[in-house]
Write a structure and sequence with these properties.
heterodimer, A: alpha/beta, Rossmann fold, six-stranded mixed sheet, 9 helices, B: alpha/beta, nine-stranded parallel sheet, 8 helices, 21% helix, 41% strand
Chain lengths: 281, 422
């Protein structure tokens, strides 16, 4: 575990490190699924994690957020200088972490407006907005995302299309203004129009919150209008490659096969003991 | 009153109402859901604090409900839809009769009586009905003229410390008329006692009746909300029960869909918090052909609250083409909360469609993770469920007084509640 309040710099960009995942090994149901994963994201940076299906990208996002479904066997997650490895997800959220879910849940009986108010309570900038002010602010944000304000009165996620659910995720991103947002395949299953709305949401977040982004995807389309600082490639629970934005084009052209061939394919427990693979870029 | 007095050496004397919210067709006794009893301090005096808001022309004469019932009975007998009473002693040799359950035997007796007065019942049962009527005194009668549209009335019953405060309300909607009645059971002043309403509804041919009942009592009070309905041809009744408070809350509704194509829709919203006990009984009895009923309950159970909901759809022989459905969604936000749901469909007729469904469960781990990822601890998540139910009740309250009752209860449960709905 890292010491509390350690501040260092990301080796690639020189920016102050905001998120530092250090030698993270994670298991679920007794099976190791992430192996010695390292990741360093500087304040205000945009990082992309790519990889084929089942590479462990979403798992990494959930572990960083503190999902109790996974057991951290070794390593640490340090956020904003604080070791958060043992913190609950709500405390990580309050510290400034945000995870946009690949499949946001439905919660019948809870109107979106009530949920947003509870999520914003106590947060700087929005927590002190009173009833009408808060609703006005939320409606303005919904307007930026072409989101019908009527959705705010509906039950959370119930009857929402896939695109509407992702818009709601973006609305929360703009409302909560986290220091770092992990977008877990936010682009999956979206049509061109919905993808445009998500891209607009990301732009607005970067513009208004100057926050860092970790975008988990295996589709490069959402990255077209983003200034990407670093790209990481995961295969079979390992970080197998890292590089600058040019790596996106290379993946677009050649796919993940080159990385899959380079990754160790031993049995899970053996893979945990294997030597790290050299960076591809 | 048939209530039973009881006392022990160390406890204050009490009276008990028996067979409250009894299921028409009981299930296993060991499940302890067939009925309940309501125990009161024996020294509760009857002191109704009832406010009625209605235009003078809407207030009818006592006996209007009984008159409407007799008129319908005469009509149904003239058309052969209701059998004349079987003459005494006409029953064939009992050994020639099929064996009947207690429910079937009682039901057959009522049907054979040819009396709508005997067939009419309320959801909480006869003891509770008698208690409430006696405590309330003279009933408030709300009666529309044939074809009258947009009639509205509000009845507010407020708790009186040390007393049983109850209203008796008869709603008689004449042919083709439309009436909305809101009922509020509230305790704006501190105290303890019982607060209730005994409601009888007669919906004439093509009439439309809307009932909204909102209960916002503090935990020291006992709530009794009892309703019985009789519907003629193509009549429609929409009922909304919002049950948010009271230490013990009892809600019963029985509806008799007597005329062809009559419809009843019951929408129940409830909130259990602290150590509150909620008890519901709904019985919708289809007599008329092509009648339709729907029961939809949606609630949150938090703290160490407990809830029992019985829902019975009874398709009586002859109600061809009738349909009924009952659905309940319960969100259990605390491990200590207890839920019992008893959906029953009784079929005495082949050509009917009845179904029930329930989504009952604790908040799932992925739902808690989602809420946590937005900064909500498990305690904050539970508060969110309470707040959401209260906010919805406040926003859908039929009038300012009811809304104020919800806000008062909300303030007692949650910080800054009123600010949220401002």
């Amino acid at each position: 575990m890292a010491d509390e309040h350690t501040i260092n710099q990301t080796p690639e960009t020189g920016a102050e490190t905001l998120l530092s995942v250090q030698n993270l090994t994670v298991s679920a149901d007794g099976k190791t699924i992430l192996h010695d994963v390292d990741l360093a994201v500087g304040a205000g940076e945009t990082h992309v994690i790519m990889g084929p299906n089942g590479a462990g990208k979403s798992t990494l996002g959930h572990v960083v957020m503190g999902d109790a479904a996974y057991d951290v066997e070794d390593g640490a997650v340090v956020f904003d200088g604080i070791d958060v490895t043992d913190l609950s997800p709500d405390k990580r959220s309050r510290a400034g972490l945000f995870l946009s879910f690949q499949a946001p849940v439905e919660i019948p009986g809870v109107p979106v407006s009530s949920f947003l108010r509870a999520a914003a309570a106590g947060r700087e900038g929005v927590g002190d907005l009173k009833g009408k002010q808060f609703r006005k602010h939320v409606r303005e944000l919904a307007g930026e995302l072409d989101m019908d304000p009527a959705y705010l009165d509906r039950e959370l996620g119930v009857g929402f299309s896939g695109g509407e659910k992702k818009k709601l995720e973006m609305l929360q991103l703009l409302l909560l203004r986290p220091k770092l947002a992990i977008l877990d395949e936010t682009d999956s299953g979206l049509d061109v129009d919905a993808l445009g709305v998500v891209s607009r949401g990301i732009d607005a977040y970067r513009r208004t919150a100057d926050g860092a982004l970790v975008i988990i995807t295996h589709n490069t389309r959402i990255l077209e209008h983003l200034d990407v600082d670093r790209v990481h490639v995961m295969v079979r629970g390992r970080m197998v490659a890292e590089g600058d934005a040019s790596l996106v084009a290379r993946i677009d052209e050649h796919g993940f096969e080159q990385f899959e061939q380079a990754a160790p394919d031993a049995a899970p427990d053996e893979r945990a003991e294997a030597a790290p693979v050299a960076a591809a870029c | 009153m048939a209530a039973t007095p009881a006392a022990s050496a160390n406890a204050a004397p009490t009276i008990t109402l028996h067979h409250v919210n009894a299921m028409p067709a009981p299930t296993w006794h060991r499940l302890r859901v067939n009925e309940t009893g309501v125990e009161f301090p024996a020294d509760l005096r009857a002191e109704p604090d009832v406010q009625v808001e209605a235009p003078q022309e809407l207030l009818g004469e006592p006996g209007a409900f009984e008159t409407a019932l007799k008129r319908l009975e005469a009509h149904l007998k003239s058309t052969g839809e209701l059998a004349a009473a079987s003459p005494a002693g006409a029953v064939a040799d009992p050994l020639d009769q099929p064996a009947l359950s207690a429910f079937q035997a009682a039901s057959a007796t009522v049907e054979a009586s040819g009396s709508l007065e005997r067939a009419f019942e309320t959801g909480m049962g006869s003891e509770a009905f008698a208690y409430l009527r006696e405590a309330a005194g003279e009933p408030v009668v709300i009666a529309t003229a044939p074809g009258q549209q947009g009639a509205r009335a509000a009845v507010r019953v407020r708790g009186v410390d040390g007393a049983a405060s109850a209203a008796a309300v008869d709603v008689v909607a004449a042919e083709g008329s439309d009436v909305s009645v809101s009922i509020a059971l509230d305790s704006p002043e501190p105290g303890a006692g019982a607060v209730g309403c005994s409601l009888r509804v007669f919906a004439g041919r093509d009439a439309r009746v809307s009932i909204t009942s909102t209960q916002t009592l503090d935990p020291a009070w006992i709530a009794l909300d009892d309703t019985g309905m009789m519907l003629d041809e193509r009549a429609r009744a929409d009922v909304r029960h919002t049950v948010l408070g009271a230490g013990q809350s009892y809600t019963g509704l029985a509806g008799d869909l007597r005329g062809e194509e009559a419809k009843v829709a019951v929408d129940t919203r409830y909130l259990g918090s602290g150590a509150r006990e909620l008890d519901f009984n709904y019985e919708l009895r289809h007599h008329g052909a092509k009648t339709e009923s729907a029961m939809n309950a949606n609630g949150v159970l938090a703290g160490a609250s407990s809830k029992t909901l019985r829902g019975t759809i009874d398709f009586v022989r002859g109600c061809k083409g009738a349909s009924g459905q009952e659905v309940e969604t319960v969100l259990i936000a605390d491990e200590r909360a207890a839920n019992r749901t008893v959906p029953v469909i009784l079929c005495g007729e082949d050509d009917v469609a009845g179904n029930h469904g329930a989504t009952i469960g604790h908040v799932r781990p992925e739902q808690l993770l989602y809420l946590a990822s937005r900064g909500l601890s498990p305690e904050a998540a539970e508060q969110l469920f309470l707040r959401a139910t209260l906010e919805e009740a406040a926003l859908s309250a039929p009038d300012d007084a009811t809304r104020a009752g919800v806000a008062r209860l909300g303030r007692a449960l949650l910080e800054d509640f009123e600010e949220e709905i401002a």
